Amino acid sequence: MGVKGDKLTNASVLAAEALVEQLNDIGSISSKKMFGGHGIFHEGKMFGIVDSKGQCYLKADKANKAEYEAAGSHQHSRMPYFSIPDAVLENREELLNWAKRSIDISK
């Protein structure tokens, strides 16, 4: 998701499509255009976002926030979403683990 008023960019579209594809083993993953970016959903519950620049984020709370920060994540504005570091995006198993934790938080 971008900032309200941001325009949807090709970077956001491509990043959202790639993230959904990478998470397809989980099942029931989808994306929806929102505020110049995308919301990433599992069974209708949003657990991730892609901003208008194509940066991917996953939902975090006290259970995983410290781990995400230790891995180099940064928070998206004041929202409870943290960036997915390149090392995690490039490691499918690790990305699936991060996504599953964020899905659990979103329930």
From TrEMBL:
Gene3D superfamilies: YgaC/TfoX-N like chaperone. It holds the Pfam family TfoX_N. Residues 21-104 form the TfoX N-terminal domain. This is Transcriptional regulator. It comes from Leptobacterium flavescens.
